[in-house]
Design a protein that fits this description.
The structure is a homodimer.
Chain A: H1 5-11, H2 14-28, H3 33-40, E1 45-49, E2 54-56, E3 64-70, E4 73-78, E5 84-90, E6 109-112, E7 116-122, H4 123-132, H5 134-160, H6 163-180, E8 184-185, E9 188-190, H7 195-202, H8 206-218, E10 222-225, E11 228-231, H9 234-240
Chain B binds a DNA duplex through α8.
Chain lengths: 252, 252
DNA sequence: CGGAAAATTGAGTACTCTCAACCAGCGTGG
DNA sequence: CCACGCTGGTTGAGAGTACTCAATTTTCCG
C-alpha cells in the first residue's frame, strides 16, 4: 500500500491505467485504433501524491493536466473570509483539470483527496493530440462539457436545496458516477471525503453536516463510515435528494 | 424599438451582428479570413423572442444553438420544491447554449431576459465548422470553458458568501463582462434583471435581495433602477464582493 | 388611465451557524 | 504493548442571517 511507482505502477502497463479513460472517451466519440494508440503514447509522467497534496494552485501557471489513475481528487476555491468551497469531486480515471487546457493560469486549486497515483501530462501534448485527432478532441471537449454540467447542478444544489436534500443529492451524484465507472459493488463505493469536505462541497458547516448525515442514516437511506458509502434505499435517497442523472450525460 | 426582423435587423448585415462574436473569438484563437468568412456564412435563422421566452427546455431535444444578437438571456433549473436557480446570465453577443453542442437533450432551461433578437444556428452546422476549422473549434471550446469557469465561481458565490457579498459579486461580474464586451459607458451598463431574478441567481429570496440592494445603494456603491446599473465606487464594490476577474479569463 | 408586475416594508419564524466541549479511532513512539 | 496526540466525528446550547407571509406602494405598459 505504501509502495509508489517503483512497484505496482511500474509493473502495470499504461494501457491498463489508461483503460478507464479510453473506455469513457469511446462512449463520447468513436476512436480509431490509431487514436487509441496516440492516447496511450501521450508523453506523461507518473507521480504519487499524498493526502491533500496540491496539483494546481489558484493563480499559478498551469502547464500540465492531471489524470487520476488511482485515488480521488477535488477542486476548491477560497473566499475572502477564509471559507473554502469545494467545486467538484473526481473519481479515479478522471481528469481533474482538463478545463485548464487553454488557460495560462489556474483559477482554482486542485488537490488529491487521498493518496493518489496521477499521470501528469503536459498540456502541449494534449493540445497537439486534439489538433491532430478530431475524435479525441471531441472526447476531451465532452469531458469538459460534462464537468461544466455538473458545476451547474452544484450551483442549483447549494443555491436552492435544504441541507438534507443537498447532501443526499451529492451522495447520489457520487454513487451514480462511481457506478457508471464500474466502481460500485452492490450499491457501495469508496467514499474518501471527510465530513468537513462534504460540508465544503455543499456550502454547509461541518456541525450541520454531521447532524444531517445522522438523519440520513437514521432514516435508513445510507450507511457511511470508514471511507465506504453504501446506499441502503436508492429509491428513497434519490427522491430525497431531488436527483435525476440526466445532467451527468452518461451515454450507454 | 418594437420592430422585428422586418426592419432594422434585415437591413443590418450579418457581418455587423456577428462582429462581437468574431471579435471575442479572435482574442481566443487566431482566425484566418477564411475562418471568419466561414463563421459569417453559417446557416442560421434570425428570430425575435419576447421577454421570458424559452429557447431551450430542460429534457427536450437540443437541435440548435442560440447566439444573442440583441438583448440578454439566462439559464435556469427548477428543483423539486418549485424553486428556481438561475445558472448564468448572458450578454448580447454571447451564445446561451453552446454547451449543448454535443448533448442530445438539454439539461436545463434557457430563456430570454427581455425582448431579444437571436441567431438560431443548427448544431450540425457548428459541429461541421468545428471539425473543419481547428481555430474556430478552439474558440468555441474556449467559450464553453469560460462558461464553465463562471459556473464554478457561482458555486462559490452561493455556497460560501453572505447575501451582501453575493449580490455585490454578481454585479461586479456582470459589469466586468459588459465592460469587456464594450457595453459600458462610464461604469454604467444595461441591467435588465428583476430583483426576483437576482434572487434566483444568488440563491436568496426576493425580499432579502431587496433589502440587501438597499444597503448597497445606501453605502453609495451602486445605483440601480429601470434596467440600468451604475457602479458608483468600483474599488469598494469589488472589495465588498470579494471579486477578482481572473476567472473570466479575458485575454487582452 | 387602468391593471399587472415589480419593488418595498413590517413582523414573526426557522434553518443553519457559532462556540465549545467531548469522544473515538489510529498511527507513532517510548 | 500501551500511552500519547492528532484528526475526524459527535453533542449541546444559544445566536443570527435569511426566510415566510402579507400588505402596501411604485413602476411599467398597453
Amino acid at each position: 500500500m505504501k509502495s509508489g511507482w517503483g512497484t505496482e505502477v511500474a509493473v502495470l502497463s499504461y494501457q491498463l491505467l489508461f483503460a478507464p479513460l479510453i473506455k469513457r472517451w469511446e462512449r463520447y466519440s468513436p476512436l480509431s485504433d490509431d487514436d487509441k494508440q496516440a492516447v496511450l503514447a501521450l508523453s506523461c509522467q507518473p507521480r504519487s501524491f499524498g493526502r491533500d497534496a496540491y496539483l494546481v494552485r489558484d493563480g499559478e501557471p498551469a502547464v500540465n493536466c492531471h489524470l487520476l489513475l488511482t485515488g480521488h481528487g477535488f477542486r476548491q476555491k477560497l473566499v475572502k473570509s477564509g471559507a473554502r468551497q469545494i467545486i467538484s469531486i473526481h473519481l479515479p480515471g478522471e481528469f481533474v483539470d482538463l478545463q485548464n487546457l487553454f488557460f495560462d493560469v489556474g483559477d482554482h486549486n486542485v488537490q488529491c483527496c487521498n493518496r493518489s497515483d496521477v499521470a501528469v501530462i503536459p498540456k502541449a501534448a494534449l493540445i497537439q493530440i486534439a489538433a491532430e485527432r478530431p475524435s479525441v478532441a471531441r472526447a476531451m471537449w465532452l469531458d469538459t462539457l460534462i464537468d461544466a454540467s455538473i458545476s451547474r447542478e452544484w450551483v442549483v444544489n447549494v443555491g436552492r436545496r435544504d441541507a438534507k436534500t443537498r447532501i443526499a443529492h451529492l451522495l447520489c451524484e457520487l454513487v451514480t458516477r462511481a457506478r457508471n465507472a464500474g466502481q460500485t459493488r452492490n450499491d457501495s463505493c469508496e467514499f474518501p471525503m471527510t465530513q468537513e469536505q462534504i460540508a465544503d462541497a455543499t456550502g454547509l458547516t461541518p456541525v450541520h453536516t454531521n447532524r444531517t448525515l445522522q438523519t440520513l442514516r437514521r432514516d435508513g437511506l445510507i450507511s457511511l463510515s470508514s471511507s465506504k458509502l453504501t446506499v441502503l434505499d436508492w429509491e428513497r435517497l434519490s427522491e430525497h435528494g431531488d436527483f435525476s442523472e440526466r445532467y451527468l450525460h452518461h451515454a450507454g
